[in-house]
Give the backbone structure.
Amino acid sequence: MTYCSRCNRSFRCRSDYDQHVRDSSYHWKCWQCHDDADFESLRALKEHYVQSPRHSYCQYCDLHLDSPSKLQDHYEVDHPYCSSCNKVFKNDLGLHEHNRQKPEHADLYCVACRKLFRAPHSLRSHYLNSRVHRRT
């Protein structure tokens, strides 16, 4: 006999219980991890996906990918992404604010053009040669 304390129900066998958990809207289980973790909410399950090294999960797209490298590729292609900090942002404004405020980017980022350069001399060259920054 297997008992579900969350639903206050008993089941004849483990397979009946597993079907109950799979079909119930009161259970959020990670079947990929093969443990007995039954999360309290969908939000908790998604947090598990984000935090667990077993998952390559994009929380912005609610998308599971096959490997960490495919998740990295997905971030770089489909999301505002700071490669030097390895951080993903919800939108372009988030990336802009990160670049603008991060001390490590201070001498690399052109706020007006929203462009991050690899070296300080590249930013200086940009200021000197860009039409946007030329004074007439």
Notes: The mean pLDDT is 92. The longest strand covers residues 2-4. The helical segments are 14-23, 42-51, 68-78, 92-101, 120-129. The chain is about 40% helix and 20% strand.
